[in-house]
TrEMBL record, chains A, B:
The protein, known as: FAD-binding PCMH-type domain-containing protein
Source species taxonomy: Eukaryota, Fungi, Dikarya, Basidiomycota, Agaricomycotina
A Pfam match: FAD-oxidase_C
UniProt keyword terms in alphabetical order: FAD, Flavoprotein, Oxidoreductase
Cofactor(s), by name: FAD
Length: 440, 440
């Protein structure tokens, strides 16, 4: 978001776990702060950006695949491997990575794990807490913890690796990752539906799960304003204007399965069922070829880029009940109207909502002509309190980082935060590991 | 296994989280040891059995479902709910529990989480580290940690709940569980194959994954000796003797899918493919009706009961590479032969192997006429060292408990164990929580 600029002058690029360990020992003895850096693609500026004069430890030179087992699908790789490079490595064996992100061309697997990245495949393959089999981590004092297991099941003692997943580099430096990769689907399809009202999203989601069951791989939502931004900035091919008419909400459904014929039959039957009910759907488009499949995805995947082109964005990545997605966006817009900041000179241009229905994860984006203290004051803590009122999460998939460390209490109780601080102290009593991030 | 007898006289049955908190506060102040107890069905006598004179805290009276969301499938329940009761609660809404165990009629969901139970559905739905959405836990000092979230995604701070999953009640008492339940499959089928050799297991597993892909829900292995025990004790209907001939290995394949017609077509095609290769398979039986489905499952599920009827069992629940399943059993048998303890008076009757191929989890059972120090000395640390030589886990799904606390180091490094002890100390510096379990 360009809100944080790092100040460090020293960037180290170790080539091995041993080198990482030596650097950490050195810094531990001298109480020098260290910031681990992956692909530096994060949203909350958690892992990769120094606050003061910490040493930056960039893992980009640790980029080798250590092993891949084509029977079990267990992949072991250096933390600095780029996600897309790993996908390419395992594709010839018939496997895919269990996560997929917009930043796949530059983000590192170690950074994905450190931030517990979510993304488009979470609905199907679950979170990294389930797919990561093991980690190799260097602790702040230089100790190497080797839990780089390729076992799918291991109940021996506390599952320490889980603490590092989503800790955003505040407990140690992930140097190696073992992850279970799923078999590549033989057939992938998608469709986009323009709905008569937001209230239809949930009934359609239920029908989708019933009809498409185990082949459902994504169920994405975007509102009309998000759609219009993508079309305005020519980042996606618009649907037929007369057919979508005044549809206020859209969903994209993706299937991935093992048998093309069966998958298409299921999808066709599903589409006929929802289209037959005119109160549900205005129109539906089923991709007929690879090119159209990409075009439909572009309508959803280009939203972040369209938002950036439209102006300066305040981005909230929240978990709230799916039934409240529309009202959370509407209430945020009303708040800005009340403050005289909506569609006024120097103010907010638009408020858009999109996200993963299957995961209850809403991306709330407020696009302004420019960043201003007034807009920020109108939005925070307003948005956090709104999320708290729904018992939601103020950070569904992008973490806490530096930006939201002050707001952690909206999603976690004081007892939980006290425990987190004790855990942090076990690993890093000198406070050198990614200082200022996650916990204040 | 009947090896451990509890000595405690005081059993408390709290009715609420508040009561659990009050009991813990009382015990914390007086440094009284506490053992949480669920359905008491564990194998390693971890959670449920006191070592000295600890108070037993039985959660059986906390057995209410707190909420169920039929759109997302998020279930929130008291820790003392019986697994099967929960299954029955959500079945009318079209959902199933993501775990299934032989002990489902008496085990508690809280105990399942505390022991990170695996079971028959892990291949399909993943481990509890992925499906548990939140926990309510009472810490040793009585503090209540409420992380009973129903959010599928929440990246706010360290994921503390993960530490309690598999901690076997040594860090706190789980009083409530929020868990994501998957939609109920519309169609379930199975088949059993008798193989020409153990070496065929892996090629067949690969074919199974390719052909059955997303509908594959179990791939179980059992060796000839395990099969013979089930038949001998009349716990399963034998397959046609002339057809299986001298087959040394069996696999059971189960599918669960959303479309009966599609699923049966996939299964039929798969069966024709493997049966057409005589070097792979001696015979295959595809269940034609519900009754036969149960009969085929009985051949695999009755093995533990058959083992118990045959004699006194030494049970090892290990993770090792699938390719070594047969050799691990064979080497254990050879070891007992060398020591003059195999099929001799008072000695071992049989060594059998069975387990979950999809998870790399082998159940190695040594059945003896009676327990003896000689047999134990022949088996331990022999089996643990064998597992260690394959970088395996000495406890894949049944935990460490009291029985294996001395053997933890075969699967975890001294650095990892040191960290576990520090974590234990954060939660329980007075050492009152399930003393003697997991960590020595």
């Amino acid at each position: 978001m360009g809100k944080y600029k790092g100040q460090s002058r020293l960037v180290l690029k170790p080539k091995s776990t041993q080198e990482v360990s030596q650097i950490m020992k050195h810094c531990w003895e001298r109480r020098i702060g260290v910031v681990p850096q992956g692909g530096n693609t994060g949203l909350v500026e958690g892992g990769g950006v120094p606050v003061k004069d910490e040493v930056v430890l960039n893992l980009g030179s640790m980029n080798k695949v250590r092993s891949f087992d084509p029977v079990s699908g267990a992949l072991v790789a250096d933390a600095g491997c780029v996600l897309e490079v790993l996908s390419q490595h395992i594709a010839p064996h018939g496997y895919i990575m269990p996560i997929d992100l917009g930043a796949k061309g530059s983000c590192h697997i170690g950074g994905n794990v450190a931030t517990n990245a979510g993304g488009l495949r979470l609905l199907r393959y679950g979170s990294l807490h389930g797919t990561v089999l093991g980690l190799e981590v260097v602790l702040p004092d230089g100790t190497i913890i080797d839990q780089l297991s390729t076992l799918r099941k291991d109940n021996t003692g506390y599952d320490l690796k889980q603490l590092f997943i989503g800790a955003e580099g505040t407990l140690g430096i992930i140097t190696g990752v073992s992850i279970l990769t799923p078999p590549m689907p033989q057939s992938t399809n998608n469709l986009v539906l323009a709905l008569n009202s937001f209230e239809n999203v949930l009934p359609i989601f239920k029908k989708t799960r019933a009809r498409l069951s185990e082949i459902l791989s994504a169920f994405e939502y975007f509102d009309r304003n998000a759609y219009e931004l993508v079309v305005k900035h020519k980042l996606g091919k618009p649907l037929a204007e007369d057919e979508i008419a005044d549809a206020p909400a859209f969903v994209l459904v993706e299937t991935s399965g093992g048998n093309k014929e069966h998958d298409e039959a299921k999808l066709q039957e599903f589409l006929e069922e929802v289209m037959s009910d005119e109160s549900l759907v205005k129109t539906g488009v089923l991709a007929q070829a690879t090119e159209q499949f990409q075009q439909l995805w572009a309508l959803r995947e280009s939203i972040p880029e369209a938002v950036s082109k439209e102006g300066k964005a305040y981005k909230y990545d929240i978990s709230v009940p799916v039934s409240t997605f529309e009202s959370v966006v509407a209430k945020t817009r009303e708040r800005l109207q009340e403050k005289g900041l909506y569609q006024t000179p120097g103010g907010v241009r638009e408020v858009v909502g999109y996200g993963h229905i299957g995961d209850g994860n809403l991306h709330l984006n407020v696009v302004a002509e420019k960043y201003s203290d007034e807009i920020e004051a109108a939005l925070e803590p307003f948005v956090y309190e709104l999320v708290e009122s729904h018992r939601g999460s103020i950070s569904a998939e992008h973490g806490i980082g530096l930006m939201k460390a002050h707001a952690l209490h909206y999603s976690k109780s004081k007892e939980s935060i006290a425990l987190m601080k004790k855990i942090k102290n076990v690993f890093d009593e000198r406070g050198i590991m990614n200082p200022g991030k996650v916990l204040e």
